Amino acid sequence: MSPGDHILNLIAKELGGRATAEEKQQLQQWQALDPSNRQEYEELVTMWKESMRLTADQSFDTSRAWSKVEAGMQPVGQNPAPARTITLFSSLYRKRLAVAAAVLAIFIIGGYLWNHYRTSWQELAAANNNQSLQLPDGSTVLLRKGATIRYPLHFDGEERLVRLSGEAYFKVQRNEHQPFVIVTGQAAVRVLGTTFVVKANNASDEVIVMSGKVSVSSKHKAGRQVELSAGQRTLLQNDQFLQSQVSDSNFIAWNTGLLDFNHTPLEKVLREMQDYYEVPLEIDTQQKAAISALTVTVRFNNQPVEQALEEIRLITGLAMKKEDGKVVFYMK
């Protein structure tokens, strides 16, 4: 997230040596919340130093400018004031003018650099369909419909940082000297080079590793993290990790179009079909205990939702009804 006015004010006060101990602590806490916050802070510090360097390189001919001002201010017919008074006042004014010019230059240059920093980030939203993207380092991303990714034009920092909301498949180019970090609402996912899926929403984050190794850490609980290898998945919810093994490839069905079930409990089948077809599916609450024991063996390959639901009905012998915008399975 971009720093708000309050954080920018704290950073400015710290750089100017005016931040209190409490304000410094607030700034440290903000940096600890999110790896992207730390990176933004470091980039703003860099911009500040660059502004100071560029300002120091400028030469302001304040003496010449002040002489012209003095000449223009002298009233007609009035004798000039004592030279010592003019010299003292002129010296003080020139110092103030130089300081004002330096400060103005810092704001102008710093403002330009900050604007350049903000516009150097790109955003891609998969509004209506899945969208593919190649990042500056050659890594590839496939966004599921509804997902959004933000990424820089160049990976110049110590980390290759991107931000994600929604679901996406990543194939990351290996670089041991510059880790790849995905920041979501709940977590930071860190890798060197691997393939995996990240599903991020407001309530939870899920990471499924297809190859390589991935580190997932909570943004809200310092030190809480898990390491995943190929064939493992984790769900981060309420700052708690729930790990399990990957038993099928249905998690990537939104890309492949394949849903494969082999003696799978009906409740799990409906949950994964709901995720793929984006249609609410339920088991009748009063019959849930009996119906949940049913298992299903079936394979869907890009089949329309109506056809897939009809197959489930025939396999299980259950009936279907539409109720409050949901499809409900029940026993007659």
UniProtKB/TrEMBL annotation:
Q: Which UniProt keywords apply?
A: Membrane, Transmembrane, Transmembrane helix
Q: Which residues form the FecR protein domain?
A: 126-214
Q: Which residues form the Protein FecR C-terminal domain?
A: 259-328
**Where does the sequence pass through the membrane?**
97-114
InterPro entries, per database record:
FecR (IPR006860), FecR_C (IPR032508), Ferrdict_sens_TM (IPR012373)
The keyword DNA repair appears for this protein: no
Extract the Pfam families matched here: FecR, FecR_C
Q: Which GO terms describe its molecular function?
A: sigma factor antagonist activity
Q: What is this protein called?
A: DUF4974 domain-containing protein
